[in-house]
């Protein structure tokens, strides 16, 4: 949970998830609805390109990954503290 994700969650009722690279918006929507028992209003996704890093062996690339911004219906929320 980054600082940006916390601000987005407070302001626009969105939650940020790291998802599989081949996950579609419909798959993300159904997964969130089943796992957290909420109604999803909108899903936005983006691919985060892996960075090039230098180490003692030369250059290496961090893997790319996919991020999903999930907006819930008005009045619903996900409480991560109660999930075990």
TrEMBL record:
Q: How the protein assembles, per its UniProt entry? A: Part of the 50S ribosomal subunit. Contacts protein L29, and trigger factor when it is bound to the ribosome.
Q: Which Pfam families match?
A: Ribosomal_L23
Q: What is this protein called?
A: Large ribosomal subunit protein uL23
* Molecular function (Gene Ontology), one example: rRNA binding
Provide the alphabetized UniProt keywords. Ribonucleoprotein, Ribosomal protein, RNA-binding, rRNA-binding
The free-text function statement in the UniProt record for this protein reads:
One of the early assembly proteins it binds 23S rRNA. One of the proteins that surrounds the polypeptide exit tunnel on the outside of the ribosome. Forms the main docking site for trigger factor binding to the ribosome.
Per the UniProt record, the source organism is Luminiphilus syltensis NOR5-1B
- Gene3D superfamilies in UniProt: 3.30.70.330
- Record's GO cellular component, any one? ribonucleoprotein complex
Q: Which domain of life is it from?
A: Bacteria
Q: Which gene encodes it?
A: rplW
GO biological process terms, semicolon-separated: translation
SUPFAM superfamilies in UniProt: Ribosomal proteins S24e, L23 and L15e (SSF54189)
- Write out the similarity annotation: Belongs to the universal ribosomal protein uL23 family.
């Amino acid at each position: 949970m980054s600082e940006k994700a916390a601000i987005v969650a407070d302001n626009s009722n969105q939650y940020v998830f790291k998802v599989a690279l081949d996950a579609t918006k419909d798959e993300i929507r159904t997964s969130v609805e089943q796992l957290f028992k909420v109604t999803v209003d909108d899903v936005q996704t983006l691919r985060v390109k892996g960075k090039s890093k230098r180490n003692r062996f030369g250059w290496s690339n961090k893997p790319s990954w996919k991020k999903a911004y999930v907006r819930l219906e008005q009045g619903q929320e996900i409480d991560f503290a109660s999930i075990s």
